[in-house]
Amino acid sequence: MTGAPPNHDPLNGKPLHVGQLNLPSTESFREAFDGLFDRRFFANHGPLERQLDRELAQRFGVRHAIGVVNATVALMLTLRALDLKGEVIVPAFTFPATVQSVSWAGLKPVFCDVDPDSQTLTAQTVAPLIGPATAAIMGVHVWGRACDPIGLQELSRRHGLKLLFDAAHAVGAGFRGRPIGGFGDAEIFSFHATKILNGVEGGCITTDDDELAARLRKMRSFHEADGSTPLFRMNAKMSEAQAAMALLGLRDLDGLIEQNRRRYALYLGHLDGIPGIRFIDYAGDEASNYQYIVLSIDPPVAGLSRDMMLERLRSRQILARRYFHPGMHRTLPYSADSVPHLPVTDWLCDTLIQLPTSQQVSDRDIATICSTIRDAVMTSRDAAKESA
Ligand SMILES: *Cc1c(COP(=O)(O)O)cnc(C)c1O
Hints:
By secondary structure, the protein is of the alpha/beta class. It has helices at 26-39, 47-60, 71-81, 96-104, 123-126, 149-159, 210-219, 240-271, 299-302, 306-314, 343-351, 363-387; strands at residues 16-17, 64-68, 87-91, 108-112, 134-140, 162-166, 174-175, 178-179, 186-190, 203-207, 277-279, 286-287, 293-297, 318-319, 352-355. The protein has 12 helices and 15 strands.
């Protein structure tokens, strides 16, 4: 024996998942929770939740950050607060919550295709879908990549539409030197355990609109009986325990981004030059949080399909994921009447793979994952040559 085996080494049979957790140290967690018990303030927007709202607003460079129990509810609440009727243009290439929140707010999602490079909506993909019933556009900063914020702001202003961004992936990301958080009428972040900022569950809405912020602060709580205009309210409150976790994560955020960036660079280096494998590229105007390691597999060149690659990885306990699969336009209830033609979305849903990254993924794990991918491509290409 030469000592204990390294943690989570796929060769030792421990599975490596996508979406592992960024956790604070046990000591800082204990300290934060001791404070909570000392104060005996657990809910109803106590001191920690208010502190989190202040720190987030500062970090995102916006006037208001409004903490909410999770991002799905935050999306629903924002759509209701804007008092919209009719249709909301959304991507189908997204996590289900984006689209489900539109339905829950009593609005109709209209699916829009995405740009093949940015994998997000753009002013060009959205413009043809704008009609008399369109009330809003909801872009998604997929993988933390800015969803054409300048182009969509210009387009929505020209048509008198509201513009929201599902920024669930985008804590710590930026565009042209500005943090994500200040674009459109409002942006919605998630602090789910698998996101870069882990509040176990949680989310927030950011906006520069004072009036919208005041309305959201009332709507998120059924408690305030202040005699003001009746609003459509619910219990969307973030607990002090969630805020405590999120504050710890916020303290570590720059370090987490830096570690993510280092792992991203390692992946990039190991995967360089493998035929048919394309890494998503955070170039140009974007500042990334590097929370997502995503690549596309071009079957004719790589010699195998995305799903075959997934099998190869899974056989070595590397639990890579298809994201997003299937596209929301192909899921019920949305697909019941008809399925819109979204060729780029379908292509992404068929070719993308998300790989494990996080504190728990070691440099050695990354080397193993990448050599598995390289071997899979090389053996498939050799087999194809032999049979040709
Ligand atoms: C995670 C996620 C959500 C939902 O966030 P919750 O906080 O879990 O409700 C919404 N949209 C996208 C794109 C997500 O990835």
